[in-house]
Amino acid sequence: MTLIDAAPGLSDVSVAETTIGDVRGDEGFYHYNRYPATDLARSSTFERVWFLFVHGHLPEAAELDAFTARVRAERVVPQDLLSLARTIGATPGTHRALVDLRTVLSAAAQYTGMRPLWDSDADTRREDGVRLCAMVPTLLGAVHRAAHGLEPVTPRDDLDTAGHWLHAVTGEVAGPDETRAIEQYLIATVEHGFNASTFTARVIASTGADLPSAICGAIGAFSGPLHGGAPDRALDALDAIVTRGGPAMTVADAGDVARRWAQDELAAGRRLMGFGHAVYRTRDPRSDLLREVATRLGGRTAAVAVEVERAVVDVLAQARPDRPRYANVEFYAGVVMDRCGLPRDMFTPTFAVSRVVGWTANVLEQALDRHIIRPRATYVGPPVDQPV
Ligand code: ACO
Question: How confident is the model at residue 11 (pLDDT cuts 50, 70, 90)?
């Protein structure tokens, strides 16, 4: 068999057919099952979009009511699993909620009876998927609170996912503006093509393993700073710029300070977190949406971020005129989450609250195709037949 040499990172190959959605990098556009994702984020609710990922169509009112009631019930996790989450969260060491979630979900198949994808039918897989996604915010909230010596909250049945998430982390019911901002963020980040975590989930699903295994693998891939682990680092960068500007820095000064900071970072060979994207060759539409959300919420950080974005994009364009890079989803994500009261170490976990819905849709789609994903590598080591 003649092997095709794919580009490093597999950026030039299509490895599956999907009806879940698409990212058109050259156009700065992405959609969920035909619906422009940022339009959904501007006009829809998270539960409605979640339903779309589960059933492949937007719900009628009665369908949405039933689905909403169901996910509110499913967010109450089995007691054993909750206890495990509390134990892991409270274990001394470097606490990282996403890593803790991965550890807890490793046990989910056992505690919830989820069977290998290979051995379960499509309806059961769909039910398991909704259940697992509904449990994620509760479990993440529990590990986070346990790490801070706090009891998990009792999930309220009068809150939608965004409100539940803020409540599960902070213990407070957030105001409508903050809840809607987080909901828009969640909608905008459900799915985004064959990124590293989604691909990882699909590879695991292709072996017929169980859903929690596929989601654990996805979380591992997602936790790296080149993928989902950047919103806190992007906000750290904003802080560094503010510190460099000093207490007297005005919003209008922020651009100049950011320009010098970005030039220095590039000269030191460092990456500017929150900028650049593997697929978008133009603006990231998620970043435009989140700038809107951040600006609507208001505050000095949002105003500074707008100036910083403009300056950093300029510096990146000057450094590589052939390959301009723009703010990605992570840049304003940190600003929005900070403004809504989420602690910095819960930024990437917030991304996982929505993305688990996209991973699950991909896992279930992959489970319909009973072929294992098994690429090959080209050996480039020393010649074989060496004496042993
Ligand atoms: N800062 C500095 N240099 C950068 C940046 C950046 N933010 N982004 C890309 N570059 C450089 C690359 O190192 C590469 O340089 P080289 O040709 O000398 O090797 C060049 O620009 C072109 O890179 P691209 O092809 O545009 O980007 P690539 O696909 O390799 O990487 C990535 C994409 C990983 C997102 C990159 O832009 C990056 O590291 N950004 C910072 C981290 C970040 O924001 N991650 C979150 C991404 S969004 C998400 O996953 C949800």
Answer: confident
Q: What domains appear along the chain, each with residue ranges and CATH number? A: 33-224+346-367 (1.10.580.10), 231-339 (1.10.230.10)
What is the pTM (predicted TM-score) of this model?
A: 0.94
Span 280-297, pLDDT tens digits: 989 999 999 999 999 999
- Phi–psi pair at 157, nearest 5 degrees: -95, 10
The total of other beta-carbon atoms located within 10 Å of residue 291's CB is 19
Give the pLDDT score at 243. Answer: 93
Cα(187)–Cα(42) distance, integer angstroms:
9
Among residues 156, 183, 142, 191, the alpha carbon closest in space to that of 357 is found at: 191
Query: What is the token pair recorded at 296?
Result: 């609507």
pLDDT tens digits for 60-103?
A: 999 999 999 999 999 999 999 999 999 999 998 777 899 999 99
pLDDT confidence of residue 120: 96
Comparing CA positions, the residue from 387, 357, 382, 358 lying closest to residue 136 is: 357
The catalytically annotated residue of 178, 307, 309, 330 is 330
CA of 277 from ligand 1 middle (Å) equals 6
The Cα 144–Cα 101 span in angstroms is: 10
357 neighbors 55 (Cβ within 8 angstroms): no
Nearest CA residue ID for atom 16, ligand 1: 320
Tokens of 168: 């599960």
Q: Is 298 left (phi over 0), alpha (psi -120 to 50) or beta?
A: left
Handedness of CA 31, 37, 43, 48 (dihedral sign): positive
Catalytic option among 277, 292, 309, 365: 277
Amino acid, res. 361: A
Residue 371 CA to residue 110 CA, distance in Å, equals: 25
Q: pLDDT, tens digit, for every residue of 227-272?
A: 876 678 888 899 999 999 999 999 999 999 999 999 999 999 999 9
Per-residue confidence (pLDDT) for residue 230, from 0 to 100: 67
Per the CB < 8 A criterion, the answer to whether 326 and 280 are in contact is yes
List ligand 1's pocket residues with C-beta within 6 A.
226-228, 230, 271-278, 320, 323, 325, 328-330
Cβ neighbours for 374, distance < 8 A, ≥ 6 positions apart: none
The Cα 165–Cα 142 span in angstroms is 11
Query: Residue 11 CA: which ligand 1 atom is closest?
Result: 29
